């Protein structure tokens, strides 16, 4: 079984700033993942050519099951509002996605509120006070050849401390699903705090950000120690360098 997490940066290339469907397909196909968590995913966004990035990733993997979960309606960094159930799917949306080659028994979506204050963030324009976006945890109970597996993916806040609160909320939500349990995602914190605040086991220790010369691990594949013996042994870890995104994907292969 191969698990992967990938912050797509809405499919944009750092080399020329362009979003190109073939580049995204190639980057995702190279992962050859049975279960893939995606972050910074666009749907119907002009900046990414109105592509459905979730469907594109599923096509690249030959995966019949996929789901997108919006965090906001509109475009991050421009005009947006928190996603709501009545949002028109034709409007630009931004969020996360889960793609899998396995059947899904059931889905679970958990809202993770945004930080209530603006926070300083270093951008190409300098240090700016930015409004935090709401976040979401998308989880599924998968029917794998070796039994049920619960997998969630999320993209946590850049606000220190608030992302810890969101992480704990996500872990509680996942523990309502059957073991074994996996969390995939860009948690916006390094591996030490992640382990300290969750008690979950990291299946891979590797720098993933920034993609040209990674110095820190923001992207994680975590296993709940309650029931993780059923997952098997890690036999390979990869952090390929695709032509899209400012993050490297993190790919973990298990002998299960």
Could you describe the 3D structure shown?
Keywords: Endonuclease, Hydrolase, Nuclease. The protein is of the alpha+beta class and 256 residues long. It has a single domain (2-254), classed as Endonuclease/exonuclease/phosphatase (Deoxyribonuclease I, Chain A). It has 4 helices and 15 strands. The protein has helices at 21-31, 53-61, 162-174, 191-198, and strands spanning 2-7, 35-43, 65-74, 80-82, 93-100, 104-112, 119-123, 126-130, 135-144, 147-155, 181-186, 201-202, 219-223, 234-238, 250-254. The strands form 3 sheets. Strands 4-3-5-2-1-15-14 form a 7-stranded mixed β-sheet, covered by helices on one side. Helix 1 crosses helix 2 (53-61) and helix 3 packs across helix 4. The radius of gyration is 17 Å and the shape is globular. It starts with a strand and ends with a strand. The mean pLDDT is 94.
Question: What would the keywords be for this entry?
Answer:
4 helices, seven-stranded mixed β-sheet, 256 residues, Deoxyribonuclease I, Chain A, 15 strands, alpha+beta, six-stranded mixed β-sheet
Low-confidence stretches: none
Global structural class:
alpha+beta
Outline the biggest β-sheet: 7 strands, mixed
Helix content: 10-25%
Query: What is the C-alpha radius of gyration, as a whole number of Å?
Result: 17 Å
Oligomer: single chain
Determine the strand fraction and express it as a percent band.
Answer: 35-45%
Shape: globular
Q: What is the CATH top level name? A: Alpha Beta
Average pLDDT confidence is: 94
Enter the CATH topology name.
Deoxyribonuclease I, Chain A
Counted up, domains total 1
Query: Using DSSP, what is the number of strands?
Result: 15
The CATH architecture: 4-Layer Sandwich
Say which CATH homologous superfamily is assigned: Endonuclease/exonuclease/phosphatase
* Sequence of secondary-structure elements: EHEHEEEEEEEEHEHEEEE
The rounded distance between the terminal residues' Cα atoms is 6 Å
Number of helices: 4
Pfam families: Exo_endo_phos
InterPro entries: Endo/exonu/phosph_ase_sf, Endo/exonuclease/phosphatase, GPI-anchor_lipid_remodeler
GO molecular function, one term: endonuclease activity
Protein name: Endonuclease
